[in-house]
Write a structure and sequence with these properties.
The chain is 16% helix and 34% strand. It is built from 11 helices and 38 strands. Helix 5 packs across helix 6. The C terminus is likely disordered. It catalyses: Hydrolysis of Pro-|-Xaa >> Ala-|-Xaa in oligopeptides.
C-alpha cells in the first residue's frame, strides 16, 4: 500500500503494552525482526529505500607515520580505493633518540615500504568490511587484527606474520575489538554475552585452541561491561569493569601473564577510576560525586591503597584524561567548554611523588578547536603527538617537545578544490536556556557568502548524551554546504561533557528534557540573531542525537524546515523496558529504568515514537543500518511508519535503511561520502536549492 505520492505505508498490527495502568498500542511492533530475515519486513524496508531513491534521484594519501621500535608504521589510502593499506618501513637510524624534526624517508634511497595488510583485498566481494583493532606484537614480528564483515560489531581476530602475511594461528571467533598483546606469544581479548555486553576477558596462548583459553575475569552484573587498555609503559595491561557511574580496575603484568589479574582499584558504587603506570607507581584518575571533575593520585605498585594526591579536584576544570611519559604527565582538561593540554614534569623514577605544580599549557591557533591525544607517542621520549583541528583548520598532526616547547606540524590533511582557511569565520556564541543556563554554540561560515540578515540557510547539529564532547573540529563534507552560503553550527547542549561533569548530570535521567530545550533555545538564538530564519533552519543528529532530533520535531515542528535523524534512538520506552535488547541494562544509568513508575512516565513524555501526533512536520530524512547492534533498525522504521500515518502535511518523509551497514554506516570511504551526499542533497532539496529532476533521473 502506498500514499498518493507513492510513499510506502506500513500495515498496522496492534500490539498492546501495559505498565502502571498505562496502555500503549504499538501498531508497528511487527517491524522488529531480530533475525533480520523476515521476507515481509525486508520487503517493506526495500520499498522505503526504493521510494527514497526515487525522490532523491536527481589521490594517494599517507597518514603521519608512527615510530615503534625499528619501524615506522602508517596507513596509506590509494586513489579511487575504498579502504586503507597498513604499511611499515625500517627506521634508518633506530638507535637515535626521537626528535620532533624526525621524518620518515620516502625517496629511492629510503628503506623499502612493506604492505602488511591491504583492506581493499580483504574487502573484495563484501558489502561491509572494517578492521577495528590492528595490534603489532612487541617484537614487531606478528600482527593481530579484529575484522567485522557485517557491521554488527562482532569480530574475528586473525594473527599474521607481519612480513609474509601468512596466518600463524587459528582465528578467534565471536570477540570484541578489545585486543592487546600480553607478550610475543599471548593475546588478551574480550567476548560478549547474548546482549552484546562485553563480559569476559580471556588469555590466549598462540598455537592453542580458543576453547582452551583461560578466563581472566567474568563480569556477571549486567549493568557493567569490560574494557581493555595497555599502559603507556607497555609493562601492564589493565582490564576495567564499568557502568555509567562506576569503574574499577585490575592489572596484568605482561612479564608474567600466567599469574593472571590482580585488583588495582576497588569496586565502590559511584567511584570511577582510570589507571596507568610509570616506574614504581600506578597513576589513577578518580571521579566521585564529591570530586565530580576528577582528581589524580598515585600509589606504589606494592601498596595500591596508599595513594598520594598529585592533582586536586577543581569545580571549574574537568580532568578528562591523562597520558604518562617517563618524565612527564600530560593532562587533558576542559575549561569553559574548550579542551586544553597541560604538561607537568615528573621527578625521576624512584623519587617521592607529591602535588604537581608549574604545569605549562600548550597554545593553539584558533579561538575554538578540537585536540586529541595520540596513543602512539613513545613513552620514553619527550615527544607528545597531538591531533588538532578547528572548524576551519583541517586535521593536523603535531609533534610537541615537552622539554623545549617546540611544536612541529608533521601533517595536515589535504583539502581539494582550492580550499583557503582564511575564507571562513569561526565563532563561539552563547544561548540562554529556559532556566537561564548559558549554552555554547560553535559556528562557521564563508565570510563572502553569508549575509547574516536572516536569509542564510543553516544546519544545526546536536548530540547531548553520555558525557560525549562534540568539539568544533573540521569536517571536509561541510564545505559543500559552506561554499553554497550555509552557516554550520554545533549546539553544545547539556547531557554532553563539554562544560564538565555537571553539564552531563544536568542532561540525563529526570533532567533529560534539558537536552531537548537547550537545543530549541540554540535554534531560537540563531533565528533571533539573524543567522537564519525558520524557513532556512535545518537540523541533524545521530543515534542519541537522533533521539534529540525526533523529540524536538514533536515539540517544535514549526521551528525547522528540514531534519535528518541518522540511526536514531527513537523508541526509548519500549527499548528500555526490554532487557533482551543489546545495551538496555547498562543504559538504565543513562536514561533511567522505566520499570520505576517515575522514570516510566518521564521517559514516555519525550520518547519520539510515543509522542508522534497529528500535526504538521518539516521535511524529514531518517536512516538506519539493518545490522546495527546499538539502535535496532526497527526503531527508526516504526518512527517513520507512525509519522507517515499521522502527520498532516505534504512535506518529504524519507527512510533509508542500509542492508550492508551497522551503527556507523557503510564501511568504505566513498560509500560514507555517498551517505553524506544523500543527507546534504536532501537538505538542499527541502530548501529548494536544487532542481527537481523527476523520478528515474540521476
Amino acid at each position: 500500500m502506498t500514499t498518493k505520492d507513492n510513499a510506502p505505508v506500513a500495515k498496522k498490527v496492534g500490539h498492546a503494552m501495559e505498565l502502571f495502568g498505562d496502555v500503549r498500542v504499538d501498531n508497528y511492533y511487527w517491524l522488529r525482526d531480530d533475525s533480520r530475515s523476515s521476507p515481509e519486513v525486508l520487503s517493506y524496508l526495500q520499498e522505503e529505500n526504493a521510494y527514497t531513491d526515487s525522490v532523491m534521484a536527481g589521490g594517494r594519501r599517507v597518514c603521519s607515520p608512527v615510530r615503534k621500535g625499528p619501524y615506522y608504521y602508517y596507513e596509506r589510502t590509494l586513489e579511487a580505493k575504498e579502504y586503507v593499506q597498513y604499511c611499515r618501513r625500517l627506521v634508518p637510524n633506530p638507535n637515535a633518540p626521537p626528535s620532533v624534526h624526525d621524518t620518515m624517508p620516502t625517496g629511492p634511497d629510503a628503506p623499502q615500504e612493506h604492505v602488511i595488510l591491504d583492506e581493499n583485498v580483504k574487502a573484495q566481494s563484501r558489502q561491509y568490511y572494517s578492521i577495528a583493532a590492528f595490534k603489532v606484537s612487541p617484537n614487531n614480528k606478528l600482527v593481530a587484527y579484529a575484522e567485522d564483515t557485517k557491521g554488527d560489531e562482532i569480530y574475528t581476530v586473525y594473527v599474521i606474520d607481519a612480513q609474509t602475511g601468512a596466518y600463524v594461528d587459528k582465528p578467534l571467533l565471536g570477540v570484541t575489538a578489545y585486543l592487546q598483546w600480553a607478550d610475543d606469544g599471548n593475546l588478551v581479548y574480550i567476548t560478549m554475552d547474548e546482549t552484546l555486553r562485553p563480559h569476559k576477558a580471556w588469555l590466549h596462548k598462540l598455537g592453542t585452541e580458543q576453547s582452551s583459553d583461560s578466563c581472566l575475569y567474568h563480569e556477571k552484573d549486567d549493568m557493567f561491561s569490560l574494557d581493555l587498555q595497555a599502559s603507556e609503559s607497555k609493562k601492564f595491561l589493565f582490564i576495567a569493569s564499568e557502568s555509567r557511574t562506576t569503574r574499577f580496575n585490575f592489572y596484568l603484568d605482561v612479564s608474567k601473564p600466567e599469574d593472571g589479574l590482580k585488583a588495582l582499584t576497588p569496586r565502590v558504587d559511584g567511584i570511577d577510576t582510570s589507571v596507568s603506570h610509570r616506574g614504581n607507581h600506578f597513576f589513577i584518575k578518580r571521579r566521585s560525586d564529591e570530586f565530580f571533575n576528577s582528581e589524580v593520585v598515585a600509589c606504589p605498585l606494592d601498596n595500591t591503597s596508599a595513594t598520594t594526591l598529585l592533582l586536586p579536584h577543581r569545580d571549574s576544570v574537568k580532568i578528562q584524561d591523562i597520558q604518562l611519559f617517563n618524565d612527564h604527565l600530560v593532562v587533558y582538561e576542559r575549561e569553559k567548554g574548550l579542551p586544553k593540554v597541560t604538561i607537568y614534569g615528573l621527578p625521576d623514577v624512584g623519587e617521592p611523588l607529591q602535588i604537581l605544580q608549574g604545569g605549562h599549557i600548550v597554545e593553539f591557533i584558533d579561538p575554538i578547536y578540537s585536540v586529541e591525544l595520540s596513543e602512539s607517542s613513545l613513552f620514553t621520549s619527550s615527544i607528545l603527538r597531538l591531533y588538532y583541528s578547528s572548524m576551519k583548520t583541517p586535521p593536523s598532526v603535531y609533534d610537541y617537545d615537552m622539554k623545549t616547547g617546540i611544536s612541529v606540524l608533521k601533517k595536515i590533511e589535504t583539502v581539494l578544490g582550492g580550499f583557503d582557511a582564511s575564507n571562513y569565520v569561526i565563532e563561539r556564541k552563547w544561548a540562554n536556556a529556559r532556566d537561564g543556563t548559558q549554552i555554547p554554540i560553535s559556528i562557521v561560515y564563508h565570510k563572502d557568502l553569508v549575509k547574516l540578515d536572516g536569509s542564510d540557510p543553516l544546519l544545526l547539529y546536536g548530540y547531548g548524551s553520555y558525557e560525549i564532547c562534540i568539539d568544533p573540529s573540521f569536517d571536509a563534507s561541510w564545505l559543500s554546504l559552506l561554499d553554497r552560503g550555509f552557516v554550520y553550527a554545533i549546539a553544545h547542549i547539556r547531557g554532553g561533557g563539554e562544560m564538565g561533569r555537571q553539564w552531563y548530570e544536568n542532561g540525563k535521567f529526570l533532567k533529560k528534557k534539558n537536552t531537548l530545550t537547550d537545543f530549541i533555545a540554540c535554534a531560537e538564538y540563531l533565528i533571533k540573531n539573524k543567522y537564519c530564519s525558520k524557513e532556512k533552519l535545518c537540523i541533524n543528529g545521530g543515534s542519541a542525537g537522533g533521539l534529540l532530533i525526533g523529540a524536538v520535531l514533536n515539540m517544535r515542528p514549526d521551528l525547522f524546515k528540514a531534519a535528518v535523524a541518522e540511526v536514531p534512538f527513537v523508541d526509548v520506552l519500549t527499548t528500555m523496558l526490554d532487557p533482551t535488547i543489546p545495551l538496555t541494562t547498562s543504559e538504565w544509568e543513562e536514561w533511567g529504568d522505566p520499570r520505576n513508575e517515575e522514570f516510566y512516565f518521564y521517559m514516555k513524555s519525550y520518547s519520539p515514537v510515543d509522542n508522534v501526533k497529528a500535526q504538521h512536520y518539516p521535511n524529514i530524512l531518517v536512516t538506519a543500518g539493518l545490522n546495527d547492534p546499538r539502535v535496532m533498525y526497527s526503531e527508526p522504521a516504526k518512527f517513520v511508519a507512525k509519522l507517515r500515518d499521522l502527520k498532516t502535511d505534504d512535506n518529504l518523509l524519507l527512510f533509508k535503511c542500509e542492508f550492508g551497514a551497522g551503527h556507523n554506516s557503510k564501511s568504505g570511504r566513498f560509500e560514507k561520502l555517498q551517505e553524506e551526499s544523500l543527507k546534504y542533497a536532501f537538505i538542499m532539496k527541502a530548501l529548494n536549492m536544487i532542481p527537481d529532476l523527476g523520478s528515474g533521473q540521476k
